[in-house]
Structures are given as structure tokens and as C-alpha cells.
Write a structure and sequence with these properties.
- This protein is mainly alpha-helical.
- It has ten helices and two strands.
- A two-stranded antiparallel ribbon has the order 1-2.
- Strand 1 (about 55) and strand 2 (about 60) form a beta hairpin.
- Helix 5 crosses helix 6, helix 5 (about 170-185) packs across helix 8 and helix 6 packs antiparallel against helix 8 (about 235-275).
- It is globular, with a radius of gyration of 27 Å.
């Protein structure tokens, strides 16, 4: 009997939700119309202006040409994947035949060394930016809490932060390249030097917004909460975990979002200038190529870079909503 009542109640709730669905969709439509109109207007202006801009490589690519080049890049990636699969199939067949003739034979497994495709370059850039950003955040958040809780540490670190924070990645890049080349010497390196150079440049340039915002968040904890911590005689670590960190979450995530955006911009610049693998190198190679398709392929990279930057920010915003204690706060 109870089971029947529960099932009837669930069916009733499901029916109410289904009835409410059209109204929810109707309410969300105005929110979608404005962005779609803005995007369509932007594409229209882009198409009209692109046709009027002539360069030494032809007209500036509009949305149609960019879509065509994006399709070509995807087709090139799929063709490269077919060649890679064929390479590994031949290698496996050759090794099986070798072992059939001599079970004790030493077989060699080689990696496919074909040219990285545009999709491969996207993956390389994402791995590099994630490495630099995560290491930078792991340094910035604890250090920011220490600086925020200690006026002495703030006074000691503030001049250093203000001195290093505005330094351009263009200034860091040659220094990092020389230091990595001099100190990272190995016959069988775990990481490529180009990867380390890009990741360290991202780290050096992206940790400052998180550091500063975390310090501000930790130093602006409500005095009521601090008094509660004193009354309860919380230990220093418990005070940080239970009081400071939850109170600082909005400022920490504000810094993380700024740092992630900086990290993504710095990465593209460092890859382009240092010829490190990634989207920046793809753009530079296409610029040097100078073919009739280069402008369109560069614009594909520009659109993808912007789209990935947007998705990274939305991902960080979703993470903030998930871990924030104040679910009613308006986050954008």
C-alpha cells in the first residue's frame, strides 16, 4: 500500500514537472535570443567587412571561409589518424612475425612521429596551460592565505608581488628558456624542454591574480567569525579550514578565473615566440607558410582560442558554484 502511494506521488510530481517544462523553456527563450542576435550580428559584420579587406594572400577570410578551413583541418586530422593506425598495425604485424620466427627476439615499440595536427596542437596547449595553472594555483592559494592572515608577511611580500606582477611573458621567456636549457640536462628527459618553458612562463605570469585575491579574501574575514573562532579556541589549522577558506572562496575563485585567462593568453604568446608545440606555434607556422589558405587557418585558430578561453572560464564558474557555500550569490 505504501509503495503504491509513493509511486502515485512520484508520478504526480513527474506530471507537474512535465507540465511546467514548456513554461520554463518559454522563460529561457528571451535569455537565448539576445546572445543569438548578437552572434548573428557579429557574423554579418565580419562577412561584410572581410570581403572589403584585400591582402597579399587574398581577401580576409569571412565566416564561410573559416568554416571551410575548419573542415579541412578536421579532415587532415582524421587522415593523420588513419596513417597512425596503419603504422601501428604494420609495426604489430612485423613484431608478431619476428616473434613467430624467434620467440626470444627483442621487439621494438616505436611511437608514430607524424606531423602534429591542429587537434593535436589544441591538446598540447591544454595540457601545458593546465600544468602551469595548477602548479601556480597550488603556490598562490596557500601563500595568499599566509599573506592575508599575517600583516608582517604582507608587508614583506607586497613589494615583491608589486614588482613581479606586471612583468610581461615576453620578458620572462628568454630567461626561462636559458635557465631550463642550462639546468634540465638528461639523456632520457621526462618532459620536453619546450613543454617546461611554456609551463613555467604560464606559472610565472598567472599566479599573481590568485595570490592577490586570496590574500584580500583571507584578510577580510568577518570579525564575528573570527570572534567565534577565538571563543571556540580553534587551532590555527582548523581556523583556516573552517573559517578562512570558506569565507575566502568568492575572492579565491575570482582570482582563479583571472589567472586562468592570463594563463591561456600567456601560453599562446610563449608558444608563438618560442616555437613551442601548441596553438601558438600553429599560428606562427601558418603565418610563415603564407599560402592562400593561411589566413583562413589562422582565423580558425583565433576562433578556437577564444572559444576554449570562454569554456575554461565557464568551467571555473561552474566549479565555483559547486563549491561555494552561498548558493544564492549571483555569479557571472
Amino acid at each position: 500500500m505504501a509503495l503504491r502511494q509513493i509511486s502515485q506521488r512520484l508520478l504526480k510530481q513527474l506530471g507537474q514537472r512535465l507540465q511546467a517544462l514548456p513554461s520554463d523553456v518559454a522563460k529561457s527563450l528571451p535569455k537565448l535570443i539576445a546572445p543569438l542576435l548578437g552572434l548573428c550580428f557579429f557574423l554579418l559584420i565580419w562577412q561584410v567587412l572581410a570581403a572589403r579587406v584585400e591582402t597579399s594572400l587574398g581577401n580576409f577570410p569571412g565566416p564561410t571561409e573559416v568554416y571551410e578551413q575548419a573542415s579541412n583541418l578536421w579532415a587532415e586530422h582524421k587522415a593523420e589518424m588513419v596513417r597512425a593506425d596503419a603504422f601501428y598495425a604494420r609495426q604489430e604485424a612485423r613484431n608478431e612475425a619476428l616473434l613467430a620466427r624467434n620467440p626470444n627476439a627483442e621487439v621494438r615499440i616505436r611511437d608514430y612521429t607524424g606531423k602534429p595536427t591542429f587537434i593535436d596542437q589544441i591538446g598540447t596547449s591544454l595540457i601545458t596551460v593546465a600544468t602551469g595553472f595548477l602548479i601556480g594555483s597550488a603556490i598562490a592559494i596557500p601563500l595568499g592565505i599566509v599573506i592575508g592572515l599575517s600583516p608582517t608577511m604582507y608587508a614583506a611580500m607586497n613589494p615583491v608581488i608589486q614588482l613581479l606582477r606586471p612583468v610581461s611573458p615576453l620578458a620572462w621567456l628568454p630567461l626561462v628558456t636559458i635557465v631550463v636549457a642550462a639546468t634540465y640536462q638528461s639523456a632520457d628527459p621526462l618532459f620536453a624542454k619546450s613543454f617546461l618553458v611554456s609551463a613555467i612562463c604560464v606559472l610565472l605570469c598567472s599566479l599573481w591574480p590568485t595570490l592577490v585575491n586570496t590574500a584580500v579574501g583571507a584578510s577580510s574575514v568577518s570579525s564575528d567569525l573570527v570572534n567565534v573562532s577565538r571563543v571556540l579556541r580553534l587551532s590555527k589549522l582548523t581556523h583556516i579550514v573552517k573559517i578562512v577558506l570558506p569565507s575566502s572562496v568568492p575572492m579565491i575563485f575570482a582570482g582563479l578565473r583571472l589567472s586562468l585567462g592570463v594563463a591561456w593568453m600567456v601560453l599562446i604568446a610563449s608558444e608563438m615566440l618560442a616555437q613551442n608545440p601548441g596553438l601558438g606555434k600553429f599560428v606562427w607556422d601558418e603565418f610563415q607558410n603564407g599560402s592562400s589558405q593561411s589566413l583562413g587557418r589562422i582565423m580558425v585558430a583565433v576562433v578556437v582560442i577564444g572559444l576554449i578561453g570562454f569554456l575554461l572560464d565557464r568551467g571555473m564558474l561552474a566549479l565555483q558554484r559547486a563549491v561555494s557555500w552561498d548558493k544564492t550569490a549571483i555569479l557571472r
